[in-house]
Design a protein that fits this description.
Length: 670
C-alpha cells in the first residue's frame, strides 16, 4: 500500500500499472477490516505526530521522546506510548487508543531478558491514576489545540485529510449491586459519554451448608469451603471413599523433607498478612473438605516409590530426559497396580532441570506434559511439585492450592456455579498445532463439556484432517469436522447426564467460519437441539478504560482500576467484558482487591457469530465460567474454563493422538 499523489504513484508503479488510476472512497469499515488500510492510516497519524519537536516514531505503532528520562547501564529509557485504532460500530468515527510504554535505546544490542526486566520494573505497577497521568501528559503534547487537521502526504494536494479531536470518550456504567450509591458529577457534558454498560454482580458458587443439607452460596471459594462443606460431601462413603489417598514418587534423599511438607497439609497455616484482602487462614485439609487425607509413609509403604535417577554422562540431554520420563512412568504403573485409587504426587528436584524439556531435530519434549499424558491414558491423576515449592514462604497459599488440587483429582466436586440457565451445555474448542521436521502439521481438537452448573464433565480428543490455517497459524474446521464436533458434544453430554441439553453454547478463541457454523448447527439441530450459540472470545487490548469516580460531585480518576463484571454492550453481537478487575475484599466489603495488582486490565471481546441468545446473557455466563477453574483457588481466571481447559488439554492431548476418540475426565489433566 502507498499514499501519495497520482503523479508519484504513477511514477513508482508505472511498469506494473495496466489501467488508469481511479480514486475510490475508503470507509471506516474498510479501515477496520482491511489490515493494509489500517496500517496505512496509523502510519500517517504517527508520521504527523513525529513532526512535534522531541518526538520520534517507528512508523508502525509507537511514539517516544527523543530524550531519555533514565538509564540502566548503557541503555537509555524513554517515555513512550503505543497508538492503535479502536472501532465502535455505533459511531461514525474511530478512536485513537493510547497505551503507556517505554522505549529502550543503546549502541549495543539489547537482549530480550533486559527488555522484559526493564519494562516490568517501569510498567507493572502502573496503577490506574498513574496510568491516567501519563496519558494526560502525552495528550497535552500531541494536542496543542482541540482539533488537529492535516493532509497526508503533507501539502500534497491529495485530499487525503485527517481530522482528529482531542476529546476523551467516556463510558457510563449502571451498577447492579443494590447497595451501590450512585453519584452524578457537576458540569459533566453528556456528549462525552460514548459508551454505556452495566456492572454484573460477582457470580455465586454453591456449597453444602454445615448444619443442614441445603445449598449455601458464596462468591469466595475459600470462605465458602471454610464456612460450609464441599458440594458433593454427601457422596463420601456412598460413591466416593471416606478418604482422599495420595501416592508419592520421590528420590530417596529428598523423601523425609517431602513427607514433612505433605504432612503439613493436615495443619493450620496463617496468612501472615499476605494478600489479606483475598487469602484467608488455611485450617487444615480435614477442616476444609470434611474428609481425611491419607499420606503414605516414605519408609515402609508401597505407595511411596523411590526414583533415584542418575544422568548418563555418555548420553545427550534429550536422551537422559527420555530415560527420566520412562523411569517416572514405570513407577506410576507400579503404583496403579495396587487396589487403592490415589493421586500420584511426583517430586521434581532442581537437579532434574536440564532434563525437563528439549527441542531436538524438530521434536519437542516437556516432562510435565509427558507425565500427564501417560497418566491420563491410564486413568491416573497426578500432581507435580518442584523442590523450590518446599521452601516457598507463601505457605498458606500453597497449602490452599494443593489441598484443592488433591480433592478435585480424587474426582470430587468442591463447588458448582449458581446458574439460572438450566439444561444448557457449554463446550470449548481447543487446538494443538505442531510441525516436526518437514512433516505436515498435526492438529488435535479438543471438545470439553460443562453442564449448566459449570461442572466440567468429559472431553474428547480428535485428530483433524481437513482444516485450513490462517496467517496466524490458527486452524479452522471443515464442514465435516465441524459436524463431527457437534456429534461429540451430543454424545459426551448424554454419556454424562443421560439426556441431551436444550441449548448448547460453544466458545473458542478464533472466529467461526461459515463451514464451522453450518456443520455444528446441522449436527445439533439433527438431534433436536435448536438453541445454539457460537461465541468467539478474545482480549481487546485497544479497549482499555481508566476508572473514574465522583467525589464531592466532581469527576476524578480512581486509584483502582475498573471493577470486574463491567460490561459494555456495543451491539447485539458484541460486548466488552472485564473478567479481570476490582472485587470486594474478603476482610471488609468496603475494601477492594485487585488480583495480581498489575497495571490496568484489558477486557475480553465477546463476539456472537451465531445464535439467538441475548449478548448480555452470554456475557454473564462467561463471567460465571471464569470461576470454575478447579486448578486454582484464585477468585477467578481471566478466561472462562471452557477456553482455559480446552487449550491446556489439547496441548497435552497431542501426545495421546493414538487414543483419538477416547473420552477422558478432564481432572486427569489439571
Amino acid at each position: 500500500m502507498h499514499v501519495g499523489t497520482l503523479t508519484d504513484i504513477g511514477n513508482i508503479f508505472k511498469d506494473r500499472i495496466k489501467s488508469d488510476i481511479k480514486r475510490e472512497p475508503i470507509s471506516k469499515n474498510d479501515v477496520e477490516n482491511v489490515g493494509a488500510f489500517k496500517s496505512l492510516m496509523l502510519q500517517a497519524v504517527l508520521k504527523y505526530f513525529s513532526t512535534i519537536k522531541g518526538v520520534e516514531t517507528n512508523l508502525k505503532d509507537k511514539l517516544w521522546f527523543t530524550k531519555s528520562f533514565s538509564r540502566q547501564g548503557n541503555i537509555g529509557i524513554h517515555k513512550s506510548i503505543y497508538l492503535s485504532f479502536y472501532f465502535d460500530k455505533n459511531s461514525k468515527f474511530a478512536y485513537i487508543a493510547l497505551t503507556p510504554s517505554i522505549h529502550l535505546s543503546s549502541n549495543n544490542e539489547i537482549s530480550k531478558e533486559q527488555r522484559q526486566s526493564i519494562s516490568k520494573n517501569h510498567l507493572e505497577k502502573l496503577y490506574n491514576n498513574k496510568y491516567d497521568e501519563i496519558l494526560q501528559s502525552w495528550r497535552n503534547i500531541l494536542f496543542s489545540q482541540q482539533r488537529i487537521k492535516f493532509e497526508s502526504p503533507a501539502s500534497s494536494g491529495t485530499g487525503f485529510n485527517f481530522l482528529i479531536s482531542a476529546n476523551t470518550a467516556f463510558g457510563e456504567i449502571d451498577v447492579f449491586d443494590p447497595n451501590f450509591r450512585k453519584y452524578s458529577p457537576q458540569n459533566y457534558d453528556q456528549r462525552q459519554t460514548q459508551f454505556k454498560g452495566v456492572q454484573f454482580l460477582e457470580p455465586q458458587l454453591v456449597f453444602k451448608n454445615v448444619a443442614t443439607d441445603v445449598d449455601f452460596k458464596d462468591y469466595h471459594p475459600m470462605r465458602g469451603l471454610v464456612n460450609n462443606r464441599p458440594y458433593d460431601v454427601n457422596l463420601n462413603g456412598v460413591i466416593h471413599s471416606n478418604e482422599v489417598n495420595l501416592s508419592a514418587i520421590c528420590p530417596s534423599k529428598y523423601s523425609e523433607n517431602f513427607y514433612r511438607f505433605l504432612s503439613e497439609l493436615q495443619l493450620q497455616h496463617k496468612t501472615e498478612n499476605i494478600n489479606p484482602d483475598y487469602l484467608i487462614d488455611y485450617p487444615g485439609f480435614a477442616s476444609v473438605f470434611n474428609i481425611s487425607l491419607n499420606i503414605p509413609n516414605y519408609d515402609n509403604d508401597e505407595r511411596w516409590q523411590d526414583v533415584n535417577f542418575i544422568a548418563d554422562s555418555k548420553l545427550e540431554n534429550h536422551e537422559n530426559a527420555i530415560r527420566l520420563a520412562r523411569l517416572i512412568t514405570s513407577k506410576i504403573e507400579q503404583i496403579s497396580s495396587s487396589q487403592c485409587r490415589s493421586t500420584v504426587v511426583v517430586f521434581i528436584p532442581k537437579e532434574w532441570q536440564p532434563f525437563e524439556s528439549y527441542l531436538y531435530e524438530g521434536e519437542s519434549f516437556d516432562l510435565h506434559d509427558y507425565i500427564k499424558a501417560f497418566s491420563a491414558s491410564k486413568g491416573i491423576s497426578t500432581q507435580l511439585i518442584r523442590e523450590e515449592t518446599l521452601i516457598d514462604k507463601l505457605k498458606c497459599q500453597i497449602y490452599w492450592w494443593l489441598s484443592l488440587s488433591f480433592y478435585v483429582k480424587s474426582l470430587r466436586t468442591p463447588w458448582i456455579l449458581n446458574n439460572q440457565e438450566k439444561n444448557t451445555a457449554y463446550a470449548g474448542i481447543g487446538y494443538s498445532v505442531s510441525k516436526i521436521r518437514d512433516k505436515s502439521e498435526i492438529v488435535i481438537g479438543c471438545s470439553h463439556i460443562y453442564d449448566s452448573n459449570g461442572q466440567g464433565l468429559k472431553y474428547r480428543l480428535s485428530k483433524i484432517d481437513n482444516y485450513f490455517l490462517d496467517k496466524q497459524n490458527n486452524p479452522y474446521l471443515s464442514y465435516k469436522d465441524a459436524f463431527q464436533f457437534g456429534v461429540s458434544i451430543r454424545e459426551l453430554f448424554y454419556q454424562s447426564l443421560d439426556k441431551l441439553p436444550e441449548r448448547v453454547v460453544i466458545h473458542k478463541r478464533t472466529k467461526f467460519t461459515e463451514d464451522e457454523i453450518n456443520g455444528i448447527k446441522s449436527s445439533l439441530n439433527k438431534a433436536g437441539i435448536k438453541k445454539v450459540d457460537l461465541i468467539e472470545i478474545n482480549y481487546d487490548y485497544d479497549a482499555r478504560f481508566v476508572a473514574m469516580n465522583v467525589y464531592q460531585r466532581q469527576l476524578q480518576v480512581d486509584r483502582f482500576p475498573i471493577s470486574r463484571g463491567t460490561c459494555i454492550i456495543t451491539n447485539k453481537y458484541t460486548a466488552l467484558l472485564w473478567s479481570h478487575g476490582i472485587v470486594p475484599s474478603v476482610r471488609q466489603p468496603n475494601y477492594r482487591f485487585y488480583l495480581g495488582g498489575r497495571s490496568i486490565p484489558a477486557p475480553i471481546k465477546i463476539t456472537k457469530h451465531y445464535g439467538d441468545s441475548n449478548i448480555s446473557t452470554i456475557s454473564t455466563e462467561i463471567l460465571g465460567l471464569t470461576k470454575m477453574n478447579w486448578n486454582s483457588l484464585d477468585l477467578y481466571s481471566k478466561l472462562p474454563s471452557t477456553i482455559d481447559s480446552s487449550n491446556q488439554i489439547a496441548r497435552i492431548g497431542k501426545l495421546l493422538s493414538r487414543f483419538e476418540g477416547k473420552t477422558y475426565d478432564y481432572r486427569l489433566f489439571i
